[in-house]
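Researcher: Here's the sequence for the chain we discussed earlier.
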Amino acid sequence: MRQLNRRDLLRSAAAAGALGTVWPLSEALSPAQAMAAATELGASFDPAPFTLGVASGDALPDGVVLWTRLAPEPLSLTQPLADSVDVTWVVAEDPLFHRKIARGTVAATAAQGHSVHIPVRGLRPGRRYYYRFSALGKTSRAGRTKTAPLGPVAKVRFASANCQAFHDGFYAAHRGIAGEDLDFVVHLGDYIYEHGQVGGQHVRDHEGPEVFTLPDYRRRHALYKGDPSLRAMHAAHPVYLTWDDHEVANDYSGTTANEPFRKRRAAAYQAYYEHMPLRDGSGPQIYQTRRWGDLLELDVLDLRQYRSAQNLPNGTILGAEQKGWLKNRVDTAGDSWHCWVNSIMLSQLAKPGGGHYFTDQWDGFRAERNEVLGHVHRSGMQDLVVITGDWHSAFVDDVVPDFDEPDAPVIGTEFTAHSITSGAYSAEWNATNGPVMGGANPHLKYFEGNRYGYDVYEVTPRRWSTHMRVIEDRRDPYSRVSTLTTFHVDRGRPGSREDRRGASSPAQYRRGAPSG
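Model: Thanks. This is the structure I predict for it:
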């Protein structure tokens, strides 16, 4: 049987959703005309030259990375700037910047897209700070950030976001995240999409054809930052980041040897770095460990850059070096919650009668999955929670060391979150296939595919709670946000349970009855 192409099915579902007016933005427009077209259909930018806003990320106990990019004409392929422009930054303890504690000046260069990445150190752990930039006689908006704590922590509250196709809707979910009381945000990938205009009836569209070069990718990132809710999210919270495929190309393997693709990938990686609060000089290494006091350990995975082709007997999704690092993380795991930041589904999604729905996820690398999860089981590591994006729908799964073994013990829980906007399957597909997926996968506890939003995680020393936050309408940039349901994981007891208050919430599959 031919393998289903999920991206094609999702694109068809999005077309059937008919979101509204086509955005008439193309390369033929001048920068002024492009800005006018963007404004007419709800996009906007901060005042020049800080049009793309500000951001912070990679929070450590003594510092964070601060980011901005000078782009006076954000939708232009080139910027009317000198090769080097001085940018001044300042960090304060208060939002009015009365108590300034750090400042400096750096050069924003054309070679780096006039972006800056400031690794601020010397801050105090577990504290909120405020920052802003100045250049060319102008001052940016203020951003808010927070350092990681040290020692005992009573609670952490953070959100995850993933899959934000620009043409599929406005970023009301990011507006919701910006307004949440959070310590940080994790972005799980598909920050941009690389394909060209989709046409049809959408609220907006991409600005041109599929992107291949560095100027193309720069403009695509700038377009996505044209949604004010995305800029608001970045200004409100520090982020930890991983990527998936669409930051480069659909379903790509980082070890592809084709020279044109290597050039395209290098351009995409460069543009990604230029638009994210990543550490200067870190290169394209994404995987890393970050801690939130003694409560939470985040292992951020990179499931694109080092993978082989799918469905090979000796295939790898991690690569040898990252796999060794992850096993070492398991062996040295401390007494805390352990969270794997995972861009594509870890749990098996088998089809009735054999085979798997989509082998671009971990199902295409089954031997390595068994190896890694078997290592977790043998090590005795407890309290593993995996947070995942990519599917454009919500799943809750028990994680087991071998998904083909009926009596395999539960060793963790995976939460796959709704997408920010990227089109899911139709309501009819979900209603038909939710029970089918549940019947073929005994570890699958919950599936809901008709909504869009984000997850909020509240973690204490005794319990992990995942709140599925959903919007009413992705055509509305101010759409209301509500909690669809909540799942809990109790410390020392692998496996999740749904809160009884979500028992009446809609879902296309649910195993068992919710409890309190």
